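A note from the maintainers: we've had questions about how concatenated examples are separated. There is no special marker in the raw files; a new sequence line simply starts the next protein. For clarity in this README we add a label.
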Amino acid sequence: MSYTNSLAGIGLGSVLSVNTSVTTTPTWTPVGELNKLAFTGRQAGTADVTNFQSLAREFKSTLISSGNLDITGNRIGGDAGQVAMEAAFVGLATKSFKLQLVISGTQTTTGDSFVFLAIVEKLNYSVEVDKAVSLDASLKISGILTETAGS
């Protein structure tokens, strides 16, 4: 089969949502006007298990650190998702988040999604005279990042 076109997707249309429900059924509230999301710092811990019989250093995986989701966007006053993030930050609360990607590759119905628990570790705003007021945040992921493949 010959190569015809890339199946890579773009981020346009992706949505980050925060669970604003107080029940067991999630209420996914979109965080408005974000323009960059980046998972950073994901890695597996390791233990050195080298011993007297080893021919070279040996390692075993230990615990996964799911890292952070770094976020930038436009600050929108009254946006329900941004208000929920601010409340989680000042309340020191762990919240559920969902990142829904757009359809890409051979998907036809839904794109991949990621669901995770996180602490709003950083939430800052930048105000300049000739620029849009911006938001800069970081979610510290607690536990495993769960990916669901789109279809």
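[label: protein 2]
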Amino acid sequence: MQMRFLNSIILLLLVSCKIPAGSETTTLDLSNQNLTTIPDSVFSLKRLEYLNLGNSFTMYPPLSALHQEGPSGDRMNQIRQVPDEISRLTNLKTLILCANDLRSLPTGIVELKHLDTLDISFNMHLTVSKEFSTLKKIHWLKYL
């Protein structure tokens, strides 16, 4: 229990750290960090090309084994909303949001002209058909 508490404190410190605006960071993996929101400091990473806010989990076939609540685990991110500040990440090529709790896509996502990969799989509350109007504006997207 103490180790889990200590890990939570360390994660909180890491996530709350301010990253310099001129950071050279091009890859950021925040998967399985028990996040409910995206840290504001992420949006200052102007050179970011790869952002993983999704969750890794092991699933055994068949897919029908997934219950209605979807994948689960102690450390899984549960991000419900991606703010329009995502549009600040103009160099972003890959955005992974799989297995979160997304309800909709941000309108600012259409401003990411270099985005070629968007993973929104296993977001049980995201109705993709309602997002068609946004998705069709990202005509340069290669992988969805």
